[in-house]
Here is the input.
Amino acid sequence: MALVNEHFLKLPGSYLFSDIAKKVNTFKITHPKQDIIRLGIGDVTRPLPKACIEAMHKAVEEMTSVETFRGYGPEQGYDFLIEAIIKNDYAPRGIHLSPTEVFVNDGAKSDTGNIGDILRHDNSVGVTDPIYPVYIDSNVMCGRAGVLDTQSGKWSNVTYMPCTAENHFIPAIPEKRIDIVYLCYPNNPTGTTLTKAELKKWVDYALANDILILFDAAYEAYIREPDIPHSIYEIKGAKKCAIEFRSFSKTAGFTGIRCGYTVVPKELTAATLEGERIPLNQLWNRRQCTKFNGTSYITQRAAEAIYTSEGKEQIQETINYYMTNARIMKEGLESTGLKVYGGVNAPYLWVKTPNGISSWRFFDQMLYEANVVGTPGVGFGPSGEGYIRLTAFGERDDCIEAMQRIKNRL
Ligand SMILES: *Cc1c(COP(=O)(O)O)cnc(C)c1O
Here is the structure.
C-alpha cells in the first residue's frame, strides 16, 4: 500500500488569490459598466530585454547543427553564466566567490523551497511576518513546521517575527531559540529593506548562535538607496552563516523564462547530531546533481545577455519604468493622507488601511468605490492585517488613473 506524506494534509488551502478573483467577478457582474484597474499583479508585465531575445535566437540556431548542439549541461550551470554572475553581481561589491559556490537554477522559488532537503526535519524555523508563503509551506511539507494553530494561523515549530509600522518593519531577534531563519530583502510583500547595520545584527546573531540564514535577494535590482545591502555577503562573516537566493525573474522579466541562482559558500557548514561540521555546499551539490538536470542552455544564454552593456541598459529601463510607477503611486496615495511603506527600493507598496479597518474591508472599499484591486495584507500572514499590497508592475496610464480614482472617490 502506498502511503501519502501526511504533512501535505496539514496545509490549509491557499485561497487568497481565488478569494480575490471571486470578489472581483462578483463586482463585475453587478457593475458591468465599471472598468477595473488591477494593482495586485504579482508578475512583471514588460517584455524581455532585446539583448536576451537575441541571445536566445542565437542559442536556438546553435541547436540546429551537430557541431554546436547542446544536450545535458552541467547541473550547476554553464561556466559562461556563472562567470558573468560572479564578475557582475559580486566582484564589484568586493565579494569574492569561486564558480563552485554558484548554482544556476530554474528560479528562486524552486531553491527556496528545496533547500530544506539538506536540513534535518526538526530544525526550528524563524520567519518574518508577513511572508512569501513558500518559506513556510515548504517546511510544512516535510514536517518541520509542526502543527497549525487555526486560531492564530501560526505553526507550532515556526517562530514569527512581526514586521509592522510599529517596529519600522525591522524584525526583532527572537527570544526563542531558532536554527534557521528566512530573510527576504528588499521584502515581498512590504517593499521595505534593511540597512547594512540592521542586516549586520542578524549576521552577528547567526554567527554567535550557529544559525543558518536563508537570504532571498530576488528584488536586489530594485535597490535605489546607497546604504542598502544588495547581497548578504557584503556583511563580514556572512559566508559562514548564509545562503543567498537570486532570481532573474524580477530583474529581467524572466518569470516565464525561468532562471535564477543560489550561492552556497564553501565555508558554510552545519552540524550533525554528533557535532561534526558538514559543508552545505557539498550537500547542495549532491542534492542538485541527483534531483535537477540543469537550466536549459537557451535560458542560460538569455541570462548571460543580461550582463552585456546593452542588457544592463535594457533591464535598467524596465526597472525604471516600474519604479516610476511606484513613485507615482506612493505620491498619489500619500496625497490622500494614506500611510504608505515600501516603493522606494522595491516594486511593492504596503499601504496602511485608513482608520484601522481590516485588510479585506479596505480591499472591498477600493474595489467598490475606486474600482482598484489590491491584495489584502492579511493574506501574507497575521501581521499583514490592516495593510494592503499594491504592486508597481502595471501599465503607467493605469497607475495614474488608479491614483486619480482613489483621490476622487475614497
Ligand atoms: C518573485 C519572487 C521570487 C522569484 O521567484 P522565481 O521562482 O525566481 O520566479 C523569489 N522570492 C520572492 C520573495 C519573490 O517575490
In short: The radius of gyration is 22 Å. Residues 107-109, 132, 184, 188, 216, 218, 247, 249-250, 255, 260 surround pyridoxal-5'-phosphate (CB under 6 Å). The chain has 13 helices and 17 strands. Residues 57 and 298 are 8 Å apart (CA to CA).
